[in-house]
Amino acid sequence: MTEFLGSIPIRETGYRPPGTAHVVRGGALEPSDLVKSAETCLTLYQVLGLTIWVAEVPRLEDLVAQTGTLISCYGQIGVCSLAVLGDYVVAPTGQAPHYTLVLPSTSEDDLERFRSCFLIMPNPLVS
What are φ and ψ of residue 29, in 5° steps? Predict the structure, then answer.
């Protein structure tokens, strides 16, 4: 039986990669962009969620390459390990390595808590 996060089917119920897995989110994680993305997800899928890309790969560049054109449009990306995300609900949705992270709210404090998990860096796919 398929489980859902809001109305999004969960790819692998109960699975969470190890804390050492790499996490990438496209963009500079500006609060206004995060609110727009989370509210779009809420409207479409009934969950206040954000797309993140997660994989247990040797190098961060390997995960970025797996996302292909989906992340190549961003000049900057946010990166961290899954362990840094702590108790956020993170579910494997869509096609691997896509995951949905659930935000508790779009309050300034919750957005800052999310943003503080990431290091913003130039996207290695953009020259």
Answer: 60, 40
Give the span between the Cα atoms of 19 and 8, in whole angstroms.
23
pLDDT tens for residues 17-75?
899 999 999 999 999 999 999 999 999 999 999 999 999 988 888 888 888 778 888 99
Model confidence, pTM: 0.92
CA distance 53 to 25: 6
State in Å, rounded, how far the first CA of the chain is from the last one. Answer: 44
Backbone angle region of 43, left / alpha / beta, with phi > 0 → left and psi within -120 to 50 → alpha: alpha
Q: Distance (Å, rounded) from C-alpha 63 to C-alpha 81?
A: 12
Which residues constitute the domain of residue 105? 4-122
Does residue 20 belong to any structural domain of this protein? yes
Is 17 among the domain residues?
Answer: yes
Closest C-alpha to 124, from 53, 81, 74, 82:
74
> Is 127 within a domain?
no
Number of domains in the chain: 1
Q: Kindly report the number of other CB atoms within 10 A of residue 110's CB atom.
A: 15
